[in-house]
C-alpha cells in the first residue's frame, strides 16, 4: 500500500514544505515589485490630486489624474519591469535549486531510492517551482487590486491588460523555467549550469551583435544603425530579452529593437514560446 506521503498531493505538499524558502523569496519579490510600487504610485497620485484641485482648472485636474491612473495601470499590467525581473529570478533560482541534487552523488542515491518513479519525482519538483511562484504572485496581485480599489483608484484597473500580463508572465516563466531545468539536468555542476544558462538566454543577441560589428568593419556600404534598431530573429530567439519588449499581449514603444512593431499583437510569439516550453519540458 502506497504511503500518503508518496501520493500526488502528499508528495507535492511535502516538497513545498521542504522548499518554504521559495515561497518566501517569491512573496518578498512580488511584494517589492508589484504591491509596493502600486501602492506608492497610487498614494502619490492621491497626494498630488489635492494640489491639482487647488491650483488647476477642472480640465487640468482631470488630465493629470488620468495620466496618474495610466501610471498605476502600467504598474498593474504588462509594463512593470520589476515583476518581469522577479519572474525571471524565480524561474532560474527554482529551476537550479530544485534539481541541483543531481549534481551530488549522495543526494542522487537518496532521491532515486525513494519508492516513486523518476517521472513522478521530476513532475513533483517541476510543479513545486511553478506552484511556489504563482501562488504568491496571485495572492499579491489580489491584494494589490483590493488596495487599488480601496484607495479610490479603481479606474486604473484594466482587466484585459491585467489578464494579458498574467498570460504573458505565465508563458515566459514556463519557457525560462523549462530551459533552466533542462540545463540543470544536463550539467553536472551548478556553476557550469549558470554559465550555460547565460549562453542559452543571450547567445542569439550576442551573435547578432557580433555579426553587425563584423559587417560594419568589413563592408563600407553597411550601416549598423538600422541593424541595431531591428535585431529581428535574434530577438525572438532570446525570450529573456524579448520579455521586456512585450506589454501583455502586444509589443510596445521601442519594440522595433525586440523584433516587433509598436502596438502589434504578440500573441503569435507567445504561442510559439508556449509550444517551445512544452517541447523543452518533454525533453
Task: Write a short abstract of this structure.
With about 280 residues, the chain is mostly helical. It is about 75% helix and about 0% strand. Helix 2 runs antiparallel to helix 4 (about 80-95), helix 4 runs antiparallel to helix 6 and helix 7 runs parallel beside helix 12 (about 265-280).
* Rg measurement, Å: 22 Å
Say how many strands there are: 2
How far is the N terminus from the C terminus?
A: 31 Å
**Quick one: overall form?**
flat
Percent helix among the residues? over 70%
Task: Explain this structure.
With 283 residues, the protein is mainly α. It contains 12 helices and 2 strands; from the N terminus they run αααααααααααββα. A two-stranded antiparallel ribbon has the order 1-2. A hairpin with a 2-residue loop joins strand 1 and strand 2. Helix 4 packs antiparallel against helix 6, helix 6 runs antiparallel to helix 7 and helix 7 runs parallel beside helix 12. The longest helix is centred in the N-terminal third of the chain and has 36 residues. The N terminus is likely disordered.
